[in-house]
# Entry
Amino acid sequence: MKNKKIKFKRIIQAPNSYFMDIKCMNCQKVQMIFSHAQSTILCENCSAILCKPSGGKAQITPGCAFKIKN
# Structure
């Protein structure tokens, strides 16, 4: 519940966006992307679609694994 508050109403203001490592489901190459990407992200090796923009956070393609970078 604490993380779901609006960013301006938190005691310490922080952004909702983050960078993450995403692994391609076809060639297993790891790429770093932004969580709120505004364009379709393609794999550098095999040109598979990794995520699509959705108006807020980017929608990750099913089958792709990701890890949030701190």
Summary: The beta strands are 19-23, 30-34, 41-42, 49-52, 59-60, 65-68. Residues 19-68 form a domain with the N-terminal domain of TfIIb fold (CATH 2.20.25.100). DSSP finds no helices and six strands in the chain. The radius of gyration is 14 Å.
